[in-house]
Amino acid sequence: MSEPFLAEIRIFAANFAPRGWAFCDGQILPINQNQSLYSLLGTTYGGDGRTSFALPDMRGRAPIHAGTGNGLTPRTLGEKSGEETHTLTAAEIPNHTHFATATSSQAQTDTPANAAWADDGVNGFAATADGAMHPSSVSSFGNGQAHQNMQPFQVVNYIIALQGLFPSRD
């Protein structure tokens, strides 16, 4: 394997970071001991920029390229976004109706399938409807719980080169 570029990130399947590499887990490093790496990363991923800087934190994150793709929103280096779970709001649910039917006829059955609410009676439902209920009579449903919002995944480690060739800009 060739010598890596300083700050190069690789996927690594073992449970340790090899010598000269560190996990991309957001750890804070001292600038005075890592000046070359700091010159490439700066405070993009954290740190105070006087005595410390941070490595990228890839835990629980999928990488995407910085910039703007056709029809996509711009993304800047170091930006974090997304959520592991999401609770839908009313604004996110497509427009739809809940249709219910009723009749003033006498009830003929006690089974609601393929039937309509009927006039008071022992059974409660009629075979056919002669009108629809007002939309406000159908109550809302749901309890606002979050649902998972994750693509399928396989857990591996991201590591970053702490030592290596300093990359040229050309």
TrEMBL record:
Top-level taxon in the UniProt lineage: Bacteria
Pfam families: Collar (PF07484)
Protein name (database record): Microcystin-dependent protein
Transmembrane portions of the chain: none
Domain Phage tail collar, chain residue ranges per copy: 8-63
Signal peptide: none
Matching Gene3D superfamilies: Phage tail collar domain
